[in-house]
Amino acid sequence: MAHIGSYVPAETALIGLVDSIRTCMSIDESILHGLSSFALELQQMSQIYQGHGERSLVILDEFGKGTRTTNGIGLLVSTIESFLKDSNQCPHVILATHFHMLHDILPSSPLLSHQTFASLHHHGEMVYLYQLIEGHARGSYAGLVGLSAGVARDVIQRQQQILRSHSANSSIGVRRLERKQQDWTEVQEAVDLLLSARLSTADAGDGLLQRVFICTTPDW
Predict the structure, then answer these.
(1) 20-52 pLDDT tens trace
(2) Does the predicted model carry a pTM greater than 0.70?
(3) What's the alpha-carbon Rg for the chain, to the nearest Å?
(4) Within this chain, do residues 99 and 30 fall inside the same structural domain, yes or no?
(5) Which of 4, 117, 122, 143 sits between 20 and 30 A of 55, alpha carbons compared?
(6) Could you tell me which of 173, 163, 100 has the C-alpha nearest to residue 136?
(7) Same structural domain for residues 8 and 89?
(8) Where a domain ends, among 65, 94, 113?
(9) Are 126 and 147 in contact (CB under 8 A)?
(10) Hey, how many other C-beta atoms are within 10 angstroms of the C-beta on 210?
């Protein structure tokens, strides 16, 4: 921020010199590229390898998420290790990831620091403190974030059930989905209308769609 003249929200700051800023961030797939989003990520990383130096600032955002989790973690770990091996040319790297087990796999190094954002649980909700602290995330808070975003509570409860089963390496119980008899009756009415329809004109088609809509729309 200081290098481009932006305000730095700090009482004091020690600003190191950088000669380039290189990023590897998520890119939407496009037919113009002729590549998947994951292939584009790898292409970005290849360019970083070819041009980085000890004064480069490298920013990696969720690198490896475009493939299977095990493959993504392997790519990310090997990338970080390759930077650490060449300490004389190791760039300044800022990395954001949701691979929580990363700290258990990476080797200890004076060049490596793990940090996370502080938060609190208050009455079943997440409270963000907007403070960067030493340490790492202990797990995923997807359920709490989902609740705060308005996701239905029964969906979150099912998510938590599946997460606990997966973490314990136990079988995930199949939940029987049941519908009210009234729902099936409404669907059957719509099916009967479609089967008996005689669509000779555009108006007849519009009328049929309106009747089906009435049959399948719940009373609020």
Answers:
(1) 889 998 777 777 778 888 888 899 999 998 888
(2) no
(3) 26
(4) yes
(5) 117
(6) 100
(7) yes
(8) 113
(9) no
(10) 10
Tokens encoding 7:
């305000």
Judge residue 41's burial from the number of C-beta atoms within 10 Å of its C-beta, 0-12 exposed, 13-18 middle, 19 or more buried: buried
Q: What is the C-alpha separation between 98 and 186, in angstroms, rounded?
A: 44
Domain that holds residue 71: 1-113
Evaluate if residue 219 carries a pLDDT over 80: no
For residue 135, give the amino acid letter: G
Q: Write the pLDDT tens digit of every residue in 110-155.
A: 999 999 998 888 877 788 898 989 988 877 788 888 888 888 888 8
Number of domains in the chain: 3
Place of tokens 């796999």: 105
DSSP the chain: -GGGT----SS-------SEEEEE-----BTTTTB-HHHHHHHHHHHHHHH--TTEEEEEESTTTTS-HHHHHHHHHHHHHHHHH-GGGPPEEEEE---TTHHHHSPP-TT---EEEEEEEETTEEEEEEEEEES---S--HHHHHHHTT--HHHHHHHHHHHHHHHTT-PPPPPPP---HHHHHHHHHHHHHHHH----SHHHHHHHHHHHHHHHSPP-
Q: Which two tokens stand for residue 117?
A: 């954002």
Question: Contact 182/156 with Cβ under 8 angstroms?
Answer: no
Contacts of 106 (CB under 8 A, 6+ apart): 77, 80, 81, 112
**The two structure tokens encoding residue 4:** 């481009």
